[in-house]
Amino acid sequence: MDGALFTSMLFATVVAGTPLVIVALGLLVSERAGVLNLGAEGMMAMGAVAAFAATHASGSPWLGVLAGMGAGLAVALVFAFLALTLQANQVAAGLAVAIFGVGLSAFVGKPFESVALPAVPPIRIPFIADIPLIGEALYNQQALVYFSWALFWAVLWFLARSRAGLVLRAVGEAPAAAHAIGHPVIRIRYLAVLFGGAMAGIGGAFLSVFYTPMWAEGLVAGRGWIALALVVFATWRPLRVLVGAYLFGGVMITQLFIQGSGLQLDFPAQFLSSLPYWATIVVLVIISRNPNTIRLNSPASLGKPYRPDA
């Protein structure tokens, strides 16, 4: 592999993994608080269409990102109300929100299907971007790529070093004990879910405004589900989320490079397109073989409803 091809593949891998990093870190915070949010796909879809519509109307991609974040927050608020206030089953509520978000985004986005946005120029960091092989791939990127790195460090510090992060983890491990010493469990879980929804909205905005500046039904293409699997794959650790997201991004990009190379393949091209989802299934099967691996960092109250005593 020559240097130019390596740089191109590394660049594309980072870009493809960025929405997974953002969404999975948001879900990680939500799950560490004990809330299983299966609605990420719908939140991403609503964030993508809202961001595209706002960018198209205003001409500003940053207003689009804010609109996408707002749409993700709104859908997350619906899920939080169902799962935390009404004490609905979190799995059923999350699936309902995912289906609702994907369907509503397809309906709302119909007028924008033949519209394209101007490409957003990347931000090149002087001097560092001149490093051979990796400089141009890592430091001549979109602003949200740099945001995803900052988000990773912020989440890592928050969960490991801050008092608020310790409280959030306590709520996820033993909500009754956290409530007994005076922590507002439901409020903390609401904030965690809303944060996850906001990140899902930003992830969707990245897809429709920065990654492929267009809107099409099915644009999210299962990335919300991959982000959910990624949190389990990472055993609820931020560093593993980052590495796993880029591994999945690399799988996505590899199949595109193979298809674009003109190689004569002995199997259908659709098999290559399914590689990211096959990789997700294989990883989950491998992890599930050892239940102790899943329980290693899994919050004890994950997915379990909690209602404080009156």
UniProtKB/TrEMBL annotation:
Subcellular locations according to the entry: Cell membrane
Topology of the protein relative to the lipid bilayer: Multi-pass membrane protein
Cited CDD domains: TM_PBP1_transp_TpRbsC_like
Keywords, in A-Z order: Cell membrane, Membrane, Transmembrane, Transmembrane helix
Any one GO molecular-function label of the UniProt entry: transmembrane transporter activity
Record carries keyword Zinc: no
Domain of life of the source: Bacteria
Principal subcellular localisation of the protein: membrane
Protein name according to UniProt: ABC transporter permease
Organism field: Pseudothauera rhizosphaerae
